[in-house]
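Lecture 7 notes: from sequence to structure.
We start with the chain below.
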Amino acid sequence: MSERTLPAGTFLIIAIAALLPITVSAEEHTTEHAYHEHVLGVFVGAAHEDFGRRENGFVLGVEYEYRLGPRFGIGAIVEHTYGNLDTWVYALPLAYHSGPWKLYAAPGIEEAEGGSERILRLGAEYGFHAGGWEISPQVDVDFIGREGEVFVLGLTFARGFEF
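Predicted structure tokens for the same chain:
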């Protein structure tokens, strides 16, 4: 009998679906989460192709988000993965905010030595405030063309500002 496993993205989608009702319910009992119109951040993390059984890499990136209101935002992500994966990711996230939770889908491209591939990043993060900073643990799954999935874990250190 052959053993069958679920793709990495399936676990993220199940986790987001399970957490969304909890975050919406919790937000009904609290005041609206404060936000800045512009947010600039640095991402530090690790990428694992096929959940670490294949290639790994250290990820360093820059993120920007323009908040369209309390619930929605649009932005840009530029990341470089060092090590075995050695890739660049350029993506445009569309975000949904529910209190400190942020869920997003980010179409983009991944550039590697072998060429470019289209990607779709699905992710979730939870923001903790420390002074004027927001520190957000982040979980992402990148669906890369026909290549499969890359699982990304890390922290975003961000500051909001206004013009």
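Points to note: Residues 8-28 form the longest helix (21 residues). The two ends are 61 Å apart (CA to CA).
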